[in-house]
């Protein structure tokens, strides 16, 4: 089963930040990156391979603060 996750991401301010977040999200098994912009991301993930907390943790590990957005 797949789920869509919208993230609000603090600390992003440029295209390099967008690339770093995109690469971090693509590194999570089961994640498909739909959109990354300064301050936000939208991904779809396979719930049999990962969960929302692991997706958020991937962004947090590279120095940004991610949280669930509506």
């Amino acid at each position: 089963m797949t789920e869509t996750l919208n993230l609000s991401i603090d600390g992003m301010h440029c295209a390099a930040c967008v690339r770093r977040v995109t690469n971090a999200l693509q590194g999570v098994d089961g994640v498909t990156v739909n959109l990354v912009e300064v301050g936000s991301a939208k991904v779809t993930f396979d719930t049999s391979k990962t969960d929302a907390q692991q997706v958020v943790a991937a962004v947090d590990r590279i120095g940004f603060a991610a949280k669930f957005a509506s």
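Helices lie at 15-26, 52-61. The chain has one domain: 2-64.
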